[in-house]
Design goal:
Layout: E1 2-5, H1 13-22, E2 31-35, E3 50-53, H2 62-77, E4 85-88, H3 93-101, E5 106-110, H4 122-135, E6 141-144, E7 160-162, H5 174-178, E8 185-190, H6 199-208, E9 213-216, H7 222-230, E10 235-238, H8 244-252, E11 254-259, H9 269-275, E12 279-283, H10 288-291, E13 298-301, H11 306-316, H12 325-331, H13 337-348
Parallel strand pairs: 1-2, 1-4, 2-3, 4-5, 5-6, 6-7, 8-9, 8-11, 9-10, 11-12, 12-13
Helix pairs in contact: 3-4, 6-11
């Protein structure tokens, strides 16, 4: 029996990715899904052996979390007799507690952030220490989403394997991809609005560029972005979490996707942008040097400054995205979710 588990109190890229990948499993009849609190049973296929909600991140205080954790451990222990394998989608303290109380034949984790982003808090550093010193030692296989991440595993490097993050199928809408839509924005940035994503440099560049920039998302820098956008007609800020279809239309109505990150790990923004036929302009950090093939599905920003962004924008502004459609779509085979999940299943069910 295989157990696939992901914790989460709100819908986000992680929970969307989890529902997408488990629904593409082959051996559903021998698989149990323990879904994030933010998800509903309708998010998952009917063919699984069982689908339950982790409930730890449901509304409630510390006592409620402990009770729900005990119930979850008791539920998992019922299957200890059956060569039990477990796959963790994210890294939390709950994962370690489960490993301490349940005997598994094999433990596999998809480690999304093998290192901390710049500007990380003390809490982030403590969690990272716990992951490195306690959690990963109890794991048999660590999946990372780009080759450079293997070096971040340090003492656990021999457990590592590279599997690219797949396409985000819950955000892919064929009718939107194939429709004819007028271009309203020259560039779009979407996702968490955080310092490590190069937001300040991005805004400084578009204040002087005569180009329309759309920013979609929430985060710690939203007040800063709001203030800049109020004084610049060329910068539009949608300061909210939008539905998957609405985000898809924003991407469709933009000429390019721009991601001037100062540092990064894995991401599915490239896959999503390419699905809608958009070239990606990004810095050479994290997974971008592997996910972006220059002059095929995107181009690079050669530096972490306002000037570097301005130069990159000027280099691509006259390109015809339509002329790149065949190249972009051909590059998407690397992120095919079914091929990727075949690799993941082989690592779990040995």
């Amino acid at each position: 029996m295989n157990i696939y588990i992901c914790f989460g109190k709100r819908k986000n890229a992680m929970t969307d990715n989890f529902s997408g990948i488990v629904n593409c499993l082959n051996n559903k009849s021998k698989s149990i899904v323990i879904a994030p609190a933010a998800c509903e049973s309708l998010d998952f296929d009917d063919n699984f052996f069982n689908v339950i909600n982790e409930k730890i991140y449901s509304n409630g205080g510390c006592f409620s979390k402990i009770i729900n954790l005990i119930k979850l451990i008791k539920f998992i222990k019922k299957y200890e007799y059956d060569k039990l394998n477990i796959f963790f989608m994210n890294q939390t303290i709950w994962n370690l507690i489960i490993l301490l109380f349940v005997k598994f034949n094999r433990v596999v984790v998809w480690l999304h952030d093998p290192r901390l982003h710049s500007g990380s808090t003390l809490k982030d550093r403590v969690v990272k220490l716990f992951i490195d010193k306690l959690y990963l030692k109890r794991v048999d296989k660590i999946i990372v989403s780009y080759k450079g991440a293997l070096d971040e595993l340090e003492n656990n490097k021999e457990k590592g394997i590279v599997i690219y993050l797949p396409e985000m199928i819950v955000q892919e809408f064929e009718d939107i991809r194939d429709c004819v839509a007028d271009i309203e924005y020259d560039f779009i940035f979407f996702g968490r609005i955080e310092p490590y994503k190069g937001i300040e440099n991005l805004l400084n560049a578009f204040v002087v560029l005569n180009k329309k920039l759309l920013i979609v998302g929430k985060g710690s820098m939203e007040s800063y972005v709001n203030n800049v956008a109020k004084n610049n007609d060329n910068i539009v800020f949608v300061n909210e979490y939008v539905s998957n279809r609405r985000l898809a239309m924003y991407i469709k109505k933009s000429k390019f996707v721009i991601l001037p990150y100062k540092d990064a790990t894995g991401t599915q923004t490239v896959q999503l942008a390419n699905y809608y036929g958009k070239l990606v302009l990004a810095t050479k950090v994290g997974c971008f040097p592997e996910y972006i093939i220059e002059d095929i599905n995107g181009f690079y920003i050669n530096g972490f400054s306002t000037v570097a962004i301005e130069q990159a924008v000027k280099c691509v502004e006259k390109l015809d995205s339509q002329a790149y459609q065949d190249r972009i779509y051909k590059s998407l085979y690397r992120f095919d979710i079914r091929k990727i999940m075949n690799k993941v299943e082989k690592e779990i069910d040995i």
